Amino acid sequence: MPIDWLTLLAAAGAGMLGGLHCAAMCGGIATGLSSMGGGSLAAAVQANLGRVTGYAVAGAVAGGVGHGIVDIARMEWLGPALRLLLGAVMVAIGWSLWSKRRVPLPGAQSGAALWNRLRPLQRGLLPADRAWKRIGLGALWGWLPCGLSGTLLVAAWLQADARNGALTMAAFGLGTLPLMVPLAWTGARALQGRHAAATRRWGGVAIIGMGVLTMAAPWLVALPHIGPVLHALGCAPPR
Questions:
Q1: Domain ranges in the chain?
Q2: Where does the record place the Urease accessory protein UreH-like transmembrane domain (predicted)?
């Protein structure tokens, strides 16, 4: 399947604009992992790259499962239906970023049971006094139940492709790095204020627009001037 550039852009934007959420949820974990490496920048980068790796692996698994379902079902309407649901998830993410109130997101409550099985693995990585241990703990951190990342995982699943699922979650994780790496390095929670409310809201509007375009793609693809662009962006079913 072609790379879905609209979804990747939306995922990266959600990571950047959702930095406040990530800092609130994971600020303590970030600073804790960094402090185990002496509070160095390298330790902060290692832990966060491990987290992005954990996201990517989760996305590959979710996308692979989605692909298996599509491959077994072999129904003509399933592809467009998944594309419609993917667009709806993107709209939900954009709305949550735009709205001042917390909006329940699909996938927000999922992952707790899996995390309970993975949690014991962290014992073998403590104390995190080596780079590989910090990367390993960061990868486990990426599986920690979280509403925003859980919603992106739903988007990865709906793409029904292991590669695109991994890329979607990696794009989300990379989008969080500009805030999370400095936070892990310095523990300066004042960095959370760098996300202005207006930027967050307009970014949410942009992601909503991407979601609407993704939902409409199966119908817009028939238009002569729009169809080729949608195919190039990977946001339309193959001909």
A1: 5-232
A2: 11-212
